[in-house]
Amino acid sequence: xxxxxxxxxxxxxxxxxxxxxxxxxxxxxxxxxxxxxxxxxxxxxxxxxxxxxxxxxxxxxxxxxxxxxxxxxxxxxxxxxxxxxxxxxxxxxxxxxxxxxxxxxxxxxxxxxxxxxxxxxxxxxxxxxxxxxxxxxxxxxxxxxxxxxxxxxxxxxxxxxxxxxxxxxxxxxxxxxxxxxxxxxxxxxxxxxxxxxxxxxxxxxxxxxxxxxxxxxxxxxxxxxxxxxxxxxxxxxxxxxxxxxxxxxxxxxxxxxxxxxxxxxxxxxxxx
Length: 272
Known about the structure:
It is built from 9 helices and 12 strands. With 272 residues, it is an alpha+beta fold.
């Protein structure tokens, strides 16, 4: 099974690119972020024509997440409040459309668009940390459900110096502050592993290149799009790659897709 994540930075603007990539890559599951469209205007028919079922949670011009799947989408859950109905912050933090999950062939696929935070002095930075704290509580509840978990998305955090093109200059700033990195580690705990780093420990691998600084031409990127697997799924993983070439297309998203390959269902019964 291939599961992919891609911040497309407007699904309607880049619909042809996404369709072409799906035709070429043919993942069983593609999770999209920054779809930037309300649900009624999402181009679901184009994906359904390729055999993909669609689950969406969108809003006009900003944010938005979607799951496309060649397999049945079951128990679709939208927003933090789906698992945290009594949490005092969950409903408010779900007003921005950033969280969607579905059960796909026995795997709980959780698709996230983590807030950027803007700057360390911004109210959006405080919001980001509150959002990550709520995600930690959400995952604690998710763990009690017992489903194998694959968490993907645009996390807007470079977890380590090797995930940033210029760590000496950029570490400590937005997307690389100690508080953000610590909050992400608390989210992951011991339950989830960054599968890309299992297969590729070296620096120099990016998934996002800023439009504004000529970053693509100079290959000055960040690795902020991640796939995290629980222990059960990690044992089934055979590879994880960033499809960098998509960033070189005309009028591309500023992000590239990330793809994990799983042997699923497991070939033996002793995997857990």
